[in-house]
Amino acid sequence: MSSTAQIGVTGLAVMGRNLARNFARNGFTVAVHNRTTAKTDALVEEFGDEGSFVAARTAEQFVAALERPRRLVVMVKAGDPTDAVIQEFAPLLEEGDVIIDGGNAHFEDTRRRERELRERGIHFVGVGISGGEEGALNGPSIMPGGSSRSYESLGPLLEKIAAKAKDGAPCTTHIGPDGAGHFVKMVHNGIEYADMQLIAEAYDLLRKVAGYSPTKIAETFRGWNTGRLDSYLIEITAEVLAHTDAATGKPFVDIVQDRAEQKGTGRWTVQIALDLGVPVSGIAEAVFARSLSGHADLREAAKDLAGPSPAVLDEPAAAAFADRVEQALYASKIVSYTQGFHQIRAGSEAYGWNIDLGAVAAIWRAGCIIRAAFLDRIRAAYDTRPDLLSLLSDEQFATEIGAAQDDWRAVVAEAVRQGVPTPGFAAALSYYDGLRADRLPAALTQGQRDFFGAHTYRRTDREGSFHTLWGGDRSEVETG
């Protein structure tokens, strides 16, 4: 088999198949391979007219079909299946070749694989790909890690197949070394969890407090999507809410069980945030909200607990309330992105990745699930001030969230008064208030820790570490 393919894809489930088609549509000759050869044959038979494919039935044929340096995209399940594919192909590769993992791998696995293959002279690139099966086919947001040399070989191909922002820029860039790409994709998914939770809370409030029907809420979301909330998730929310179930004639949203599932990247985001000491409370509440929804037994056991039942507002009050919900949603959304970008900065510092936050915002402007109009402004904020510690420190975002805060507080208060759970809105507001507080009750917490565990504390009036002798005369000793 002659070496004619510029790129190869092994693993031809929906994402792998569509990614291979995307490469072919953009003028690349693509070697395709799957453990089950029927999938390879089906792809070529069904989509062979879209471009140039080289069907390989064995690993040896697949590798032989690739030009040097070989670029081999692995699109299989994360974890052991990915390791198995690497172990199969690595012995067939040569120094300078590139293995690309396009799955949702944990970034620590990516760091391990990159280190192990680097010792053998093989580049390993963990690539975060966002956009689902449609994005894989028509242009996703692509977040590659790995060495800068690997990006020299791989980057031009990724830039060709990636989504394009409105200014024509490809939605991909070299994120940073080893696991940086998969880390950024993980945080992207964490923000996605938070964004979806906030939108769901807005829907719940408009339905239970404003008394709007799903069709009316769809119209409301379509209106919001023409303004500052313009985003893919707002757009598809309107489509979901407007859909009627053919079998029952009921709103589609009413025939779906209220149990949201998750694949794990949201949990990873929260777990790693805890390791890094980064507060991502909005993302965490979104993860926990999905978890709570799935505990049907707990909810059934608690359904008769005391509490208010929502009372629908009259029409003028409902319209005013809907406007306040828009403010609360926008403000909470800013907080979610603030927390996500803080985590990326912390991860970059901890692992020495030197991630450009403005570039991350730029490649999320199209193709990915959290694409939104205001990412242009996030990019501009970080481009103007690369050392910006928080989006809430940006003058424009600070002004907007300040203008929204009264309505934001009113929405959270109304939700509490009416017994409608809004963990995302409330957590975002608490984070905002925590940042702007002159003094936090953490002083008392640290005093308690010193009392029961001699954990020491620092004083406000002088340097040093101190401990109070609580069991004796309560004198203070300096410990360091």
Would you spell out the secondary-structure blueprint of this structure?
Elements: E1 7-10, H1 14-25, E2 30-33, H2 37-47, E3 53-55, H3 59-64, E4 71-74, H4 80-89, E5 98-101, H5 107-118, E6 123-130, H6 132-138, E7 141-144, H7 148-161, H8 180-208, H9 214-224, H10 232-242, H11 252-255, H12 265-276, H13 281-294, H14 296-302, H15 315-351, H16 357-363, H17 375-384, H18 395-418, H19 423-436, H20 442-453, E8 466-468, E9 476-478
Parallel strand pairs: 1-2, 1-4, 2-3, 4-5, 5-6
Antiparallel strand pairs: 6-7, 8-9
Helix pairs in contact: 1-6, 8-12, 8-13, 8-15, 9-10, 12-13, 13-19, 15-18, 15-19, 16-17
Explained architecture:
- With 480 residues, this protein is of the alpha/beta class.
- The chain has helices at residues 14-25, 37-47, 59-64, 80-89, 107-118, 132-138, 148-161, 180-208, 214-224, 232-242, 252-255, 265-276, 281-294, 296-302, 315-351, 357-363, 375-384, 395-418, 423-436, 442-453, and strands at 7-10, 30-33, 53-55, 71-74, 98-101, 123-130, 141-144, 466-468, 476-478.
- The strands form 2 sheets. The protein has a 7-stranded mixed sheet with strand order 3-2-1-4-5-6-7, sandwiched between helices.
- Strand 1 (7-10), helix 1 (14-25) and strand 2 form a beta-alpha-beta unit.
